[in-house]
Amino acid sequence: xxxxxxxxxxxxxxxxxxxxxxxxxxxxxxxxxxxxxxxxxxxxxxxxxxxxxxxxxxxxxxxxxxxxxxxxxxxxxxxxxxxxxxxxxxxxxxxxxxxxxxxxxxxxxxxxxxxxxxxxxxxxxxxxxxxxxxxxxxxxxxxxxxxxxxxxxxxxxxxxxxxxxxxxxxxxxxxxxxxxxxxxxxxxxxxxxxxxxxxxxxxxxxxxxxxxxxxxxxxxxxxxxxxxxxxxxxxxxxxxxxxxxxxxxxxxx
Length: 253
Known about the structure:
By secondary structure, this protein is α+β, with helices and mostly antiparallel strands. Helix content is about 40%, strand content about 25%. Helix 1 runs antiparallel to helix 2 and helix 4 crosses helix 5.
């Protein structure tokens, strides 16, 4: 309702539907409908797509690759909160500077839960890629009260199987949430002359020791050498390991 009221307020101020659509991520057809009826239609329980974790014989999500990537994004910059009308909202913060990341996040959510709608809500400096559904806590059992770095974060056995099968997608999700690729420099004596030497390096930063451990475990699995720069930072600087990261992850865009 907050989103609908904000969008309709912009329309009432004279903004065009196209302009409001760009600002809020809401389609023009939805905006036209909201002008006639602001109250959302009740969602029937039977309309919700079945959850692989809630079935009598629990299974893993059909698209394990997308799930591994989305799990990394969630652990880095995601949260799940109850919705006032029932169900839950998955929200993942994506910086405005990386439009490719915003689209990759949206695509992953759609592939994991094709029937759950996805919205891009503009906030200061970032876009909250948001999806409403009944089963997000089932798919991300790390959901809980309080900040992630203040509580235990452990993967469920079925999640660990997915990460073991698709470690690069998991690494990419974590890196896209809390990582960066930068150019470092140092100086070396070459032929008696001190020269500047630049080299690329990957950094991953997170306050949770558990999430840092999940990241380094995945790096070990794919043969990437890493060092712990400090209590919150993991560095990948070896040339061969940077080449692996470039081939499978790459810089954000």
